[in-house]
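Example 3.2
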Amino acid sequence: MKIKIAIPDNPIYRELFFNAEAVSKEFGISLIRTNEREVAKLFENNRVDVAFLTPMDYGRGTKISDYRIVPANVYAVNGYSRIASTFFKPGLKTITSCGTPTSNDFIMSIGRILLAERYNIIVDLVETKSDKKDEILSEFDSAILWKKNFVDDTALDITEDWFDTYAMPLVMGAWVTRHQEEPEDLTRILRLFESDSLHGTKKVTDKPNEEYDPREGEILYTWDDEMEKSYDALLEILFYHQLTNEMATVKIMGDELTSPTDDTIIFSPDKEEDENQ
């Protein structure tokens, strides 16, 4: 059976999907590149076998099907990244509105969560036709964009703000398949998608000028136990902010989950009876 895989068409994932086309051709894979939300819809509707999903789309989908994370590679950020920013109109004492051209994207929801949790700023994300910062700020108090901020901007780096708030990496995407539908040799194939120069982490450093300390962070590409803990904690945060439909948990491809009847019972009926005597 021909495998169908969907990946988000976003330049931040360039190194993670660097060899995707070549590997897909070699293994006869049908590869679809599209926007983040469309990737999730294709997977929800069983149009693809594997997809690179945000934690928000994973959390929303576990109620639809038995989603499983493929522990091949991941995209997560520790600290400063230059990936996305929340910009503010200068001189305002209160923030009451926020515009973005990509309101359905995961990082926009993270920006909104941080405004609420860290700064007690409660706003709805309003979809804008323009993707220009200055045009959005002429109409709204703030803007969330896939864009780096500079020294002269009144702005926050979203992943840096996330780490300052929660002291854990922000997982932005991971491979997902459906339980008992896992294509053969999937983990190895997905690892072949990444650039040959990728080695687990990538340092990010900016030093605007001599007056400022360097802003530092790192991109993480390896799925491990600590990444799983960060992902689980993130799912809790998303559920708390009503961005997922249920309290999802991380399920890994290949793991067989035990039912309550199979689990070890600490107090069996016989034990309770003995203790009551």
